[in-house]
Write a structure and sequence with these properties.
Blueprint (H helix, E strand, L loop, with lengths): L1 H16 L2 H130 L8 H20 L8
Helix pairs in contact: 1-2, 2-3
Length: 185
């Protein structure tokens, strides 16, 4: 290292003295410096061109990739819309099935309801028939008892009693068969 510094010091002393050799060395150093600067600039320009070319290729590649991604995104969006439509259709179908089930349940209830009403009505009719036949029987027995006790101007009360008894027997037999004595149902 000391030798390099000593050589530089001697070079600058030679330049001060005005020797031709010193000027030639100085000129060579300046030319080498200019050549290095030119080579560096050229290299930078080449590197920049390559970088720009690579950048353009990368940019085009990115653009094609972006275009492909956009196309895929549109396809996915269309498929998603299709799935949403199918989902809505399924939901609507399920809702309609629910409505149909509800309607069927209501219809079953409505069908059962008249059956229940008919059963209640039949029960009421039976109870009414029984009560009417009981009332008729009691009324006929009461009338029969009065007629037996009362003598209508010398007539015997045997004939009306027999006809009333046959009516009472007829009512009681119908009652045991659960039908109306006059054939009315």
């Amino acid at each position: 290292m000391d030798t390099v510094v000593a050589e530089l010091v001697s070079f600058f002393e030679a330049l001060k003295s005005g020797s031709l050799f010193g000027y030639l060395i100085l000129l060579a150093i300046v030319l080498i410096g200019l050549a290095l600067i030119i080579v560096t600039l050229a290299y930078q320009r080449i590197v920049i061109k390559r970088f720009q070319t690579a950048s353009k290729a990368a940019q085009e590649n990115f653009e094609t990739i972006a275009a492909d991604l956009r196309k895929r995104a549109l396809e996915v969006k269309k498929q998603d819309e299709g799935l949403r439509k199918r989902d809505l259709e399924v939901t609507e179908r399920d809702e309609l099935k629910g409505f149909v089930k509800d309607a069927n349940a209501e219809l079953r209830y409505e069908v059962q309801r008249p059956q229940q009403q008919r059963q209640v009505l039949k029960g009421s009719q039976r109870a009414l028939k029984e009560s009417v036949s009981h009332i008729i029987t009691v009324g006929l027995k009461d009338i029969q008892n009065r007629m037996v006790q009362t003598d209508f101007k010398g007539m015997t009360s045997v004939v009306p009693v027999v006809s009333l008894r046959s009516e009472v027997l007829m009512v009681e037999s119908c009652r045991s068969r659960k039908s109306h004595p006059l054939g009315v149902s």
